[in-house]
Write a structure and sequence with these properties.
The complex is a heterotrimer of chains A (640), B (101) and C (519).
Chain A (H helix, E strand, L loop, with lengths): L1 H20 L8 H27 L3 E11 L2 E9 L1 H24 L6 H20 L3 H19 L6 H32 L4 H8 L4 H18 L7 H5 L5 H10 L4 H8 L1 H6 L1 H22 L5 H21 L3 H28 L17 H15 L5 H15 L3 H26 L17 H16 L4 H8 L13 H26 L12 H4 L1 H7 L4 H47 L7 H27 L1 H10 L3
Antiparallel strand pairs in A: 1-2
Chain B lengths: L4 H21 L3 H26 L3 H31 L13
Chain C lengths: L4 H16 L7 H22 L8 E9 L4 E7 L1 H19 L7 H20 L3 H10 L1 H11 L4 H34 L6 H5 L5 H18 L8 H8 L2 H26 L1 H6 L1 H21 L3 H20 L4 H32 L10 H4 L1 H14 L6 H16 L1 H26 L16 H19 L2 H21 L3 H6 L16 H4 L1
Antiparallel strand pairs in C: 1-2
Helix pairs in contact in C: 1-2, 1-4, 2-3, 2-4, 3-4, 3-11, 3-15, 4-5, 4-6, 5-7, 6-7, 7-9, 7-10, 9-11, 10-14, 11-14, 11-15, 13-14, 13-19, 14-15, 14-18, 14-19, 15-17, 15-18, 15-20, 15-21, 17-19, 17-20, 18-19, 18-20
The chains are: A mainly alpha (640), B mainly alpha (101), C mainly alpha (519).
Chain lengths: 640, 101, 519
């Protein structure tokens, strides 16, 4: 089995390096095909590992080599495939295989084709390291690695100012969170003496709650950055500057869920500190609602889906915070499928519309892009959580869990958010595919994507539809390592009322969205309608003015302070005082050089003066030494 | 009145003062050398007198050293002086200011 | 040969430099490269025959110079100095190999060979006076390099560099003399041998004063805030090769000396000054990183980033535990590789455009993809991406200091954020965006000669990031013995608790390698 582990882990790396060989060369299909093939290899190896674990329940654990060893610190490159990581591996390899194949078509005309695949495969490799590592340091490697690849891919079209800005923003914001994570890792090391999950979690059972709380908080700060939780969320929406396959893979299905994975992986820690768990859940619920509200009005389809991702991450954190780790992981998996599908569908639309992103300029695309429409609609249905698609099984159980755990505020928030989710998802579906064909006004000629791209998307479609049915198998598998809490309501009646009530609520929201946006009276908004002038709309379209205030109150002062530090403090104070000291010495010389008139007799006079001074000093000191006792008496009389 | 150590030292001091004034006031390089010789010899007197007073020969030894050094100094100094005179045709101290800082 | 390999390492380049005056101008480059290559091979041979299980000094040599004052020519290497010596030889080699067409190339190569002698000397000298001589001698070639081949402000920069560091060193010299005098008082014998000094336990007040004296000398060299202002001038004016050697090796003399002198000689003072120094390091890290962000000249960005990274090194050193000190030594090597490479990279573009202002560039990734890739790699190494060489050092340094203070480590950890900010901003300004400047449209990508230097550095950056063990292990052994020595020597309660007592089995190897074995 170890062989399969290595194959699963390293074939993306090989693919990445292969594509990198063609990095500076003109685009060639082979740079896309080979990494894709290698990823499928990785997928197959992961599947074999999954089958192995399902059948035997054995955990595959290897230690490849030492990474760092000094003092008492010992960090190996160790990899573990257990029920949790194999789930993640399946999600990662599956979605990335689909995205790779899809991208061969999507990036067809891009001159950075080869570079794209190099980055994309490198990302998959980092993500696999992240999920497969058996210690925190290895996790951190993957953690930073995905951050790096995300930087490279968001800024992939580096000639665009907005793209490179977004890339840097994402990287730096993640770095802030990574600092928290690093501190968390230090805390783990100095308190447990090891960074291996196994030993660390075992040692944590005997630690003070206070220390554990700090550990939990700092590790979670790391998770907040990667999973774009408030207040570090702004990068995710801006990250949509990257090519759409990237958004599908990194900013929907895999990387952003790394935070959830971290919390799930550290479940033994978080189980000891339920207070932090409640905080995580509350923040999750807040973000779910917060992000959904921004998605309501946005006029960029990719951003809407990004906010939706953010909102769903909130759901996952609610589950993880409340101790329903397997639920969080399950929703992570299901979400990966339908959200990636949604993004790839959006990619098709973008391709058809020459990278136009405003859904108000589309409309009626369903006629030309039937397959994409079906896929996106189904993905949205899954996202909204309609029976029997994946979202129903994964998302509703989170809402139920909140109810069962008696967190009714969280429950209410999540329920409302479910309605909002349905509304905004179908708002863009309606705007894109239904209603008048507004795009004709702008002279677009939409066309359906390549066949093989649609075929590539189909596994996701199938999974988005049927993933719910895998729930019980999954539950049995993953609870071997995660706490097995089943969330059943005490009374069957309440269960049915709640489930059906939720379903009706969500369906009503969908119908409302259709009614409002699928009719023929929709116009491209021009900022004159009453709604657009309302305060709430302005607040939401400006993302609660958060990016603005970051720019205004953090970035700008930082830039100004830097300049002040350089020009005022470093140059005018620190350096000037050094030069000042040198200047004093130099100035003394300059002043006294007049003494050096070059006239021998003047100099001899100076010499005699010096001699006299020295002689008189000698006399004074000699006298002072001789009459030391008397002088002491006089001095003490003076009170010295 | 017997002539004691103090007399020699007074003589030495007087000679030294004369030499010092000479060193400071003279503008002629040659006279400057004379003044220097007076200075050195005043010290020699003091050395010899004190040496005799303590019955220790070290002082007289030093006096010989000083004489030797004075001789060599004058030799070198006069050599330089001649060269200077050949070039500039004078030995006036005020005209020598190439060492001006 | 092994008995005298250190002397050979020191004097071979010096001899070669003297002979270099007789070499024809056209073949001097080949001559320089081959001399440096032989030197590098010798240093590798040193590593090869180095026994990494021994924590004490190896290959010791001793020749009396002034026996009545205990001044001897004593050399030796341990895990701490070994890799810096190799790095110095390595950088001299690739520096000469990648030397662009400069005027008076013959003088430049001869100067570099002299510089190599002094660098080797500083890191292997085990006698304070010999150390001091090489320490000061190393200023001269650098002064010459900056002053003769520098930019428009070269005279100001070189004089500032020389006088500033020289003034600091004088204070250090006074400290050394006093230390030797104290040794004389304690034992009745003069000795300037560092290993002898190690055995001396000083009263706390003496330690504090001596620590300060040594500190001033080292801190200016590092350079620590607020003594850092000579560095931007020196880097700004120095030719590429000068900056490379300065950043890669010469700055490491300060941090190396902290570990060689300050820590083992004055353990109590080190503990006493730990927090003030940590605060200075944090200022260095954050403040200079912010200054780097404000720069308009890409070389100044790298220069200030050096100061920022040196802050992390100092912090790791004053963690006073094995993890931290090992990390800081590793980071010295890492920073040498990475900042050396960054300066070379800046040199590449300067060579083409004769400007270093970032506003002149933009969109370079379109025309120079290979250059952008290598620069990107070094950028990522510089911001401490895991699996690059810098991360290992930074991680260990911060990890080590975390044991001493949580809150200060958190503040110092801001390094990873601010580092990313200025580096990414600079990279964006230079490489991203549309290619607007006409002059940049036809720039050639990196040439073969430049790749000769950059490829090995890139490989080192990644390989040592993935597999640092061959370097970490010897460092670790020597550091363990130093930490144990410090623990045993310390007299105050606080120092005893701050400096970990390693398992008794690990013992003190340093004192066992006494002077007698050297004979």
């Amino acid at each position: 089995m170890e062989l399969y582990l290595y194959i699963a882990l390293f074939s993306p790396l090989v693919g990445s390096m292969f594509a990198a060989l063609y990095g500076a060369k003109p685009r060639t299909k082979i740079a896309g095909v080979v990494p894709s093939a290698l990823l499928i290899t990785s997928l197959i190896a992961s599947t074999i590992l999954l089958a192995h674990i399902l059948s035997t329940g054995e955990i595959v654990h290897v230690e490849m080599m030492t990474w760092m060893a000094t003092g008492n610190l010992y960090i190996p490159f160790g990899f573990i495939v257990d029920q949790v990581s194999v789930t993640m591996m399946m999600v990662v390899t599956l979605v990335s295989s689909v995205v790779h194949v899809y991208a061969i078509g999507y990036m067809d005309h891009d001159k950075g084709f080869n570079r794209f695949f190099s980055w994309l495969s490198a990302f998959v490799f980092s993500m696999l390291i992240l999920v497969m590592s058996d210690n925190f340091a290895g996790l951190f490697i993957g953690w930073e690695g995905v951050g790096l690849c995300s930087w490279g891919l968001i800024g992939f079209w580096y000639h665009k100012e907005s793209a490179t800005w977004a890339a840097n923003e994402a990287f730096i914001m993640n770095r802030i969170a990574d600092l928290g994570m690093l501190i968390g890792i230090f805390l783990v090391y100095w308190n447990t003496g090891t960074l291996q999950y196994e030993g660390a979690f075992a040692a944590m059972q005997n630690l003070d709650t206070e220390i554990l709380t700090w550990m939990g908080i700092f590790l979670f700060i790391g998770a907040m950055g990667k999973s774009a939780q408030f207040p570090l969320h702004t990068w995710l929406a801006d990250a949509m500057e990257g090519p759409t396959p990237v958004s599908a893979l990194i900013h929907a299905a895999t990387m952003v869920t790394a935070g959830v994975y971290l919390v799930v992986r550290s479940n033994e820690l978080y189980a000891l500190i339920p207070d932090v768990g409640v905080f995580i859940a509350s923040l999750g619920a807040f973000v779910a609602m917060f992000a959904a509200s921004m998605a309501l009005v946005n006029r960029d389809i990719k951003r809407v889906i990004a906010y939706s991702t953010l909102s769903q991450l909130g759901y996952m954190f609610v589950a993880a915070g409340l101790g329903a780790y397997w639920v969080a992981l399950f929703h992570l998996m299901a979400h990966a499928f339908f959200k990636a599908l949604l993004f790839l569908g959006a990619g098709n639309v973008m391709h058809a519309m020459d990278s136009e992103l405003d859904p108000f300029k589309m409309g009626g695309l369903g006629k030309t892009m039937k397959a994409s429409m079906v896929m996106m609609t189904l993905a949205s249905v899954a996202l909204a959580g309609i029976f029997p698609l994946a979202g129903f099984f994964s998302k509703d159980i989170i809402i139920e869990a909140a109810f069962v755990e008696h967190h009714f505020i969280i429950y209410t928030v999540l329920l409302l958010t479910a309605g909002l989710t349905a509304f905004y998802s179908f708002r863009i579906i309606a705007l894109i595919f239904h209603g008048e064909e507004r795009y004709k006004l702008f002279g677009f000629h939409p066309h359906e994507a390549y066949k093989f791209m649609l075929v590539a998307m189909s596994p996701l479609l199938i999974l988005a539809v049927i993933a719910g049915s895998l729930k019980m198998t999954y539950f049995e598998m993953v609870t071997a390592v995660l706490p097995a809490t089943e969330y059943h309501l005490h009374s069957v009646t309440t269960y049915w009322i709640m489930t059906i009530g939720t379903q009706i609520f969500v369906i009503l929201a969908i119908l409302y969205a259709y009614k409002k946006y699928a009719n023929s009276s929709i116009k491209v908004p021009d900022g004159t309608s009453k709604m657009e002038k309302s305060f709430v709309y302005k607040l939401l379209i400006n993302q609660y003015y958060i990016p603005y205030s970051y720019e205004q109150y953090l970035i700008r002062p930082y830039r100004e302070l830097s300049t002040i530090f350089w020009k005022q403090i470093d140059m005018k104070i620190v350096d000037a005082s050094v030069d000042g000291i040198a200047g004093i010495i130099y100035g003394t010389g300059e002043k006294t050089r007049a003494m050096q008139s070059g006239n021998l007799s003047t100099m001899l006079k100076w010499m005699v003066l010096g001699l006299v001074i020295l002689l008189s000093l000698a006399v004074v000191f000699g006298l002072a030494a001789r009459h030391f006792d008397e002088i002491k008496v006089i001095l003490s009389g003076l009170g010295v | 009145m017997e002539i004691g150590l103090n007399h020699y030292l007074v003589l030495s001091t007087i000679l030294f003062s004369i030499g010092l004034v000479g060193v400071m006031r003279r503008k002629n390089l040659l006279l400057l050398f004379f003044a220097t010789e007076i200075l050195l010899n005043s010290v020699n007197i003091a050395f010899a007198a004190i040496s005799h007073y303590y019955g220790d020969l070290t002082g007289q030894m030093f006096a010989f050293f000083v004489i030797a050094i004075a001789a060599s100094e004058v030799a070198v100094g006069l050599g330089l002086l001649i060269v200077w005179h050949k070039r500039h045709n004078n030995i006036d101290l005020d005209s020598m200011s190439t060492m001006k800082g | 040969m092994l008995d005298h390999i250190l002397s050979i390492l020191i004097f071979f380049p010096a001899l070669a430099a003297v002979l270099g005056f007789m070499i024809d101008k056209n073949s001097i480059r080949a001559y320089g490269v081959s001399v440096a290559a032989i030197e590098f091979v010798l240093s590798l041979f040193l590593w090869f025959s180095f026994d990494s299980s021994i924590s004490g000094m190896q290959f010791m040599e001793q020749i009396p110079l002034i026996p009545s004052f205990g001044i001897n020519y004593i050399l030796g290497v341990d895990g701490i100095s070994l890799f810096i010596v190799i790095l110095a030889a390595f950088f001299t080699m690739i520096g000469i190999a990648s030397l662009t067409d400069t005027k008076n190339v013959k003088n430049m190569i001869i100067t570099l060979l002299f510089l190599q002698m002094t660098m080797a000397g500083v890191f292997v000298a085990l006698d304070a006076i010999v150390f001091y001589i090489f320490w000061e001698l190393s200023l001269v070639p650098m002064l010459y390099i900056i002053g003769a081949w520098g930019g428009p402000l070269r005279i100001y920069a070189s004089v500032k560099f020389f006088l500033y560091t020289f003034a600091g060193s004088l204070v250090m010299l006074v400290g050394m003399l006093f230390m030797a005098y104290f040794y004389y008082q304690a034992t009745g014998q003069w000795s300037f041998a560092i290993l002898d000094w190690y055995r001396l336990i000083l009263p706390e007040t003496f330690q504090l004063w001596l620590f300060v004296a040594f500190f001033i000398g080292f801190a200016i060299k590092v350079p620590m805030f607020p003594f850092h202002t000579w560095l931007p001038y020196a880097h700004g004016q120095a030719p590429t090769i000068g900056s490379v050697i300065l950043a890669a090796i010469l700055l490491k003399m300060g941090t190396y000396a902290f570990i060689r002198f300050s820590l083992p000689l004055f353990p109590d003072a080190s503990v006493y000054f730990m927090f003030p120094i940590a605060i200075i390091s944090i200022i260095m890290i954050v403040y200079t990183a912010m200054i780097a962000y404000a720069q308009e000249d890409v070389k100044q960005v790298v220069a200030y980033s050096s100061v920022s990274h040196m802050g992390v090194i100092i912090l790791g050193t004053f963690a006073l535990n094995v993890e931290g000190i090992t990390g800081s030594i590793f980071l010295m090597i890492a920073h040498g590789v990475v900042s050396g490479a960054l300066f070379l990279l800046v040199g590449v573009i300067y060579e083409r455009r004769h400007t270093k202002m970032m506003s002149e560039f933009g969109g370079l990734a379109h025309v120079m993809p290979r250059y952008a890739t290598i620069f990107g790699l070094m950028l990522m190494a510089s911001v401490g991406m895991p699996l690059t060489i810098n991360f290992v050092g930074e991680f260990l340094s911060l990890l080590g200091f975390y044991q001493q203070s949580h809150i200060l480590t958190l503040l110092a950890g801001i390094a990873i954020v601010v580092g990313a900010i200025y580096m990414l901003a600079a990279y964006k300004k230079m490489f991203f965006g549309e290619l607007t400047n006409e002059k940049n449209k036809n720039l050639p990508d990196v040439s073969k000669r430049e790749l000769v230097a950059l490829i090995p550095l890139s490989i080192l950056t990644i390989v040592l990031g993935i597999y640092p063990t061959p370097i970490l292990k010897p460092i670790n052994n020597s550091v363990e013995s130093i930490v144990q020595l410090m623990h045993d020597k310390s007299i105050t309660e606080e120092a005893k608790t701050r400096i970990p007592n390693l398992a008794a089995s690990k013992g003190i190897e340093i004192t066992r390698t006494s002077m007698k074995e050297a004979h």
